[in-house]
Amino acid sequence: MPSELTWTSYKKLGIQPGQKMLLENQGDKIILSPKTTSYTDPLASSLKNVYGRTPEEVNTYIRNERETWDRTLS
Hints:
Elements: H1 7-13, E1 21-26, E2 29-34, H2 40-46, H3 55-73
Antiparallel strand pairs: 1-2
């Protein structure tokens, strides 16, 4: 980590001592982010309302999707 960053800077960024970090190279930039313990949590929320806004809409989507499986496999 750069020595210019003070402990106060780390605290503002939410970085804790001993915390594992991910380093991502994007061309001329380096992105540093805390390593998450669960990769499914951020992904799960990214799919909100994709298959419907209500439980009924989601169930309808699933039912329709399963019907296509039956037609494809028959």
